[in-house]
């Protein structure tokens, strides 16, 4: 047997049970050893006088009353008895576990794990322990058909076979010494079966460092590769023409816009390959900066392409580029175009008669050949996967890449999610923008809000109403939106036309509804969250979000950014009766500030990174043990260290780093 042996080779294992483990992505003995618990229950017996209200703990004592089972309702019952610990008598209850009654005998010592209720001097039992178990009990993530005990049994079998000693060290000795880290096999053993809490914490520290360090090594190596002088375009654009274009803009650029533009232009001029993220809050003026970068590429004789997530956004950008640069040839390319128009656009892109191209995913299809592509810009970066970004890069001679996002990403996360990129931030709003007034009301006040909306509609304003988010069920989401649409259609009958938009509609349908709203054919738009990204309706001044406490802060902020795009005063009304403290905190935070970066930091503290981005689709990595919010100091140190190692061009030949190079190659991160 060896690390790559299937787990079916372990003693007491058959192909059937091995198959179940595949649900947890456990195929080999190595997978099993590296499948760590996500927390530990402390099963050391405590005195009831030490316990805080609501604390989970193990208490031991002598049974002083017989076990009594009371039945109420279908399959519902409660088993109760009392135990004595020293002078204290404690009432114990187990719900729906009547079979435990046989194990409770008067005068016998028992150990119960449960939740302490201070006021009642009682414990709600979760588990009856045969005896006081080891101090610490691992808790693993499991799947249907695999119990905690089956998983622990399998891991024990691997340990009994001596497998933990087969794990090769993947961190260099200098780092183990410098940071006083356990060896890899010591850490793996202590993650599963620690002697005590102190040893577990040491193991955790080692594993977190390993995860974050390798993640950063990968990013920093990528960054160094992108930066190497040989593979970029040195664009010789005309500074004078660009400055004239800036002077001719109908508004002055803010300091933050100028700074970001300077950073982008410096990258484009250098021989290094640009890989930059332009981050700015909704309405901060990212598009004009991107347009000026496209103009710079044009003056240097290159084509540029701007890719956006939806057709309606592509049309919006096409219009604004045409207004900004009336003398240039600009093409639009979307999958919904008529065949003849698409053919003409493709031919013009290929022969170079087009200077700028705006489009959706259609821009990276095989049929699209560019004449001389120098700059690629993607808007709402986290909606495009890493592979799509790579395809775009391969479309030209390694064109410069600029990505834009209106999701304010806290610095903490920008380093992690986009660590291989340089980041430019537009952190101020253009002058003359009126801040959006945000109010939080309870459901009981909705009638008053709708009355006020009638007055706003009379002033020729338009209104968004966002239907509540039901995470668990798209069907319920839809039901809610339909019901809300019916109620509002009845309420505004004769006053306004109310439209409905939801996620199950085809893209063409959504675009049409959005276009009608833009053209003022409808005045009120009821929608699920499908309007989050970038669509510009300057006349929409009211945003009402129903059950706003169901949304995260960054989502609420994105939705609020749909209004406040014209000259009129805009409003956002949050309708919610939050039951939790964090729900109330989110409502207050939204009313206190319109600064997306402040809100993003608050969101991060309240919820952690995964929920902000919907980790699976955002390109933010999921770590098994590390948490990029909680373990930020380790992440920061790992980044500093990785950057330092990679800064030496010959680091891969340096014998000190041999284990790193070997590991990166094995993981497929290196060729």
Q: How would you sum up this structure, described in words?
A:
Belongs to the helicase family. RecG subfamily. Pfam families: DEAD, Helicase_C, RecG_dom3_C, RecG_wedge. 39% of the residues lie in helices and 18% in strands. It has 671 residues and is of the alpha/beta class. It has four domains: 44-129, Nucleic acid-binding proteins (OB fold (Dihydrolipoamide Acetyltransferase, E2P), Beta Barrel), CATH 2.40.50; 168-227 and 631-671, no CATH class; 231-426, P-loop containing nucleotide triphosphate hydrolases (Rossmann fold), CATH 3.40.50.300; 437-593, P-loop containing nucleotide triphosphate hydrolases (Rossmann fold, 3-Layer(aba) Sandwich), CATH 3.40.50.300. It has a seven-stranded parallel β-sheet, sandwiched between helices. A six-stranded parallel β-sheet has the order 16-21-20-17-19-18, with helices on both faces.
